[in-house]
């Protein structure tokens, strides 16, 4: 018998907790959680479909069109270095077993790992999945395994496979669920169905209509009514879910409490422990609402993997005193310190009232470092450092985390391990500035700099001095060797700023505040002196540049400007569609092609992709949907337009992606 949810009656199990157990109900007088009820979430916001920031500056569409007409010619002239940097549009999609989807004349087919054709090009769109792909022909699709075998007996408007070998499908009546044998598990009559897969469990998020939903278990026997709008829903195990500051028992279909003024923070998922804030105190509880220890805390932190958490209590004067507790709520380190913080899972830093810190090993309470340091931190999983202040000068004791043995003393105030150069080195700072050290804590730079930054390449350093309004930067290798670049025929080792754009391609700003591109052949080309970042545009040898005023432009590998610094935003090319997004002034946004043409000729103020090759376009609030060929798919409207599955929803109407009205 097929499962129909409008006939479903929910069973509500009573929450049973023994009276003699300390609970948040009998000790704190809190109300038990109520039954989960139907919800009506807030209406979704479709105002930022492109995700591009708005601007108060508005320019005419004609200005944009004229600008792109000039730009279009620049797309036609290839750089002489294009072959060294070019990225093509992606025409293949690799599948899990080595077979791959390929594109030919606007259609997709399937080839074996050896290149043999398994399926001739016939799919208009493809969506790669973990164990196969969804292939669209016209406006419907099927799910295919990696060999091209169709797994469903018919085509649908959309198909979403799950990890449990079921398929969420959409036909003209709505969304439903099929099993691997094409048997209907959930009738296809719903507005939408989405999978929720966590902790090896599968639930279906079912929307009987827009903005209303509930969850149904994989075996379609349990229904959970939860409003999770704006919060992250997390499955803990087969009994409990968490949602923001809520603990939900999905077996009883109740929340832990119905109190409005309570806040619950999950602090140990494995052991199902939480920090409950109620009135003026915090309590250590489990997910059943049982109070673990008869102690009112000021603060309880997250438990670490070894089962310890920093915690505090307030003395009679209201001052917080810090210590460490275990999962039973017992004090492993007494609450008598100004502050406590973990060095690692087994060692805690304790800071006394004189603001001096030491360390304690948690398993036996042994003091490892005495309370004489102003700061104690870790460098990596083996080393830490402790800072001593002596007569207004600082020095550092480097110690092993395993046994707190001090192995080195260095005259600095702080240390950080390099995240580049194979992690073999450190950046050290003191009153003079920052210094690059090798892995033996020996200086690699002859002096200190104002700041040391990573880059411009993965394994190099920028050492920078700030002197009033002047910025002076030197480029170094991981060994501290200063690198030089030839600018206008002159070797230089000091710059205002330096960007390595690509291999052999640089941008520099000189101390005289002049900008230059240094090309692959060593040629120097004048450049805008306001550039702050340059990165690949993911097509050909184009690069997106951003100026210090936030404006975007496009250059090629010869440093030639393809699109001027006149845009609020330019996005990378989508290597499947060959389109890049832009915003001209925050009011006009859309896409341009690999030939520099505005999609749909720039006729519309706003153009946003809905997916599956269709686009929502808008002028003065008036909207419609077009396909890539500039053919109108839907009627005109002032209302919300959205792609739900494989169908376009416009007010009360539904259209397929080729414009067929669905009844």
TrEMBL record:
Residues making up the signal peptide according to the UniProt record: 1-19
InterPro entries the UniProt entry points to: WG_beta_rep (IPR032774)
Top-level division of the source organism's lineage: Bacteria
Record's keyword terms, sorted: Signal
One Pfam family this sequence matches: WG_beta_rep
Protein name: WG repeat-containing protein
Organism of origin: Chitinophaga silvatica
């Amino acid at each position: 018998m097929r499962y129909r949810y409008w006939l479903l009656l929910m069973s509500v199990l009573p929450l049973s907790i023994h009276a003699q157990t300390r609970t948040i109900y009998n000790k704190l007088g809190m109300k038990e959680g109520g039954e989960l009820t139907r919800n009506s979430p807030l209406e979704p916001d479709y105002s930022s479909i492109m995700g591009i920031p708005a601007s108060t500056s508005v320019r005419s569409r004609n200005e944009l069109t004229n600008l792109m007409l000039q730009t279009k010619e620049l797309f036609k002239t290839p750089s002489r270095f294009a072959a060294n940097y070019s990225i093509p549009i992606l025409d293949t999609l690799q599948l899990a077993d080595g077979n791959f989807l390929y594109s030919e004349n606007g259609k997709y087919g399937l080839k074996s790992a050896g290149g043999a054709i398994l399926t001739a090009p016939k799919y208009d769109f493809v969506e790669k999945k973990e164990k196969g792909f969804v292939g669209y022909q016209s406006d419907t699709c099927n799910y295919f395994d990696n060999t091209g075998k169709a797994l469903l007996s018919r085509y649908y408007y959309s198909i979403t496979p799950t990890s449990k070998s079921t398929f969420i499908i959409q036909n003209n009546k709505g969304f439903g669920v099929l099993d691997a044998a094409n048997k209907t598990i959930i009738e296809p009559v719903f507005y939408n169905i989405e999978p929720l897969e966590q902790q090896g469990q599968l639930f279906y998020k079912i929307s009987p209509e827009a903005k209303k939903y509930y969850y149904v278990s994989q075996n379609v026997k349990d229904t959970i009514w939860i409003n999770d709008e704006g919060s992250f829903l997390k499955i803990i195990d087969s009994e409990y879910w968490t949602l923001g500051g809520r603990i939900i028992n999905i077996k009883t279909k109740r929340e832990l409490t119905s109190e409005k003024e309570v806040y619950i923070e999950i602090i140990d998922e494995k052991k199902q422990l939480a920090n409950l804030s109620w009135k003026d105190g915090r309590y250590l509880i489990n997910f059943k609402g049982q109070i673990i220890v008869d102690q009112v805390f000021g603060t309880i932190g997250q438990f670490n993997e070894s089962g310890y958490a920093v915690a505090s209590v307030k003395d009679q004067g209201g001052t917080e005193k810090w210590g460490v507790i275990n999962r039973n709520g017992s004090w492993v380190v007494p609450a008598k310190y100004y502050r406590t913080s973990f060095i690692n899972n087994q060692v805690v830093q304790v800071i006394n009232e004189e603001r001096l810190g030491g360390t304690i090993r948690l398993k036996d309470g042994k003091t490892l470092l005495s309370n004489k340091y102003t700061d104690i931190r870790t460098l990596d999983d083996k080393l830490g450092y402790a800072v001593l202040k002596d007569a207004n000068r600082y020095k550092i004791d480097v110690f092993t985390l395993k046994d707190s043995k001090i192995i080195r003393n260095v005259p600095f105030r702080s240390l950080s391990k390099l995240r580049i150069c194979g992690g073999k080195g450190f950046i050290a700072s003191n009153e003079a500035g920052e210094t690059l050290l090798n892995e033996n804590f020996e200086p690699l730079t002859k002096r200190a700099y104002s700041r040391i930054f990573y880059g411009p390449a993965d394994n190099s350093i920028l050492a920078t001095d700030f002197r009033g309004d002047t910025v002076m930067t030197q480029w170094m290798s991981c060994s501290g060797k200063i690198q030089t670049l030839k600018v206008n025929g002159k070797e230089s080792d000091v710059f205002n700023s330096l960007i390595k754009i690509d291999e052999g391609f640089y941008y520099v700003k000189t101390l005289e505040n002049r900008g230059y591109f240094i090309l692959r052949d060593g040629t120097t080309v004048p450049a805008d002196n306001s550039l702050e970042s340059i990165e690949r545009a993911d097509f050909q040898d184009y690069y997106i540049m951003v100026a210090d005023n936030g404006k975007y432009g496009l250059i090629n590998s010869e440093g030639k400007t393809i699109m001027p610094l006149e845009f609020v935003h330019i996005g990378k090319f989508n290597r499947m569609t060959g389109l890049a997004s832009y915003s001209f002034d925050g009011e006009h946004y859309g896409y341009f092609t690999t030939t520099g043409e505005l999609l749909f000729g720039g006729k519309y103020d706003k153009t946003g992709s809905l997916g599956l090759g269709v686009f929502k376009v808008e002028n003065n609030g008036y909207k419609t949907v077009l396909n890539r060929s500039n053919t109108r798919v839907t009627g005109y409207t002032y209302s919300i337009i959205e792609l739900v599955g494989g169908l376009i929803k416009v007010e009360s109407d539904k259209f397929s992606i080729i414009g067929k009205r669905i009844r």
